[in-house]
Design goal:
3 helices, single chain, 4 strands, Glutaredoxin, alpha+beta, 83 residues, four-stranded mixed beta sheet
Length: 83
């Protein structure tokens, strides 16, 4: 599953999200929204205004969401065990 974490500089919730994903073994791509203003504008149009913005398959959320990160880890590692 492709996981992307869109971040902004000096974002505490972004750092917490990446740290927890690292701890749980979730591989992700981190993209700095300052370097991609067009993507930031698309997220704003969709009402996603808080960093980080996490896209994981069909799931999308904003902010540090421990329960969503743990659920994502269960989905990823459940898929790997079944495959």
């Amino acid at each position: 599953m492709q996981v992307t974490v869109y971040t902004t500089p000096a974002c505490v919730q972004c750092q917490q999200t990446k740290r927890m994903m690292d701890r749980l073994g979730i591989h992700y791509d981190a993209i700095d929204l300052v370097q991609h203003p067009e993507q930031l504008e698309e997220f704003r149009k969709d009402g996603m205004t808080q960093a980080p913005i996490v896209i994981a398959g069909e799931s999308r959320w904003t902010g540090f969401r421990l329960e969503k990160i743990k659920s994502l880890a269960n989905r990823i590692f459940g898929e790997q065990k079944e495959g």
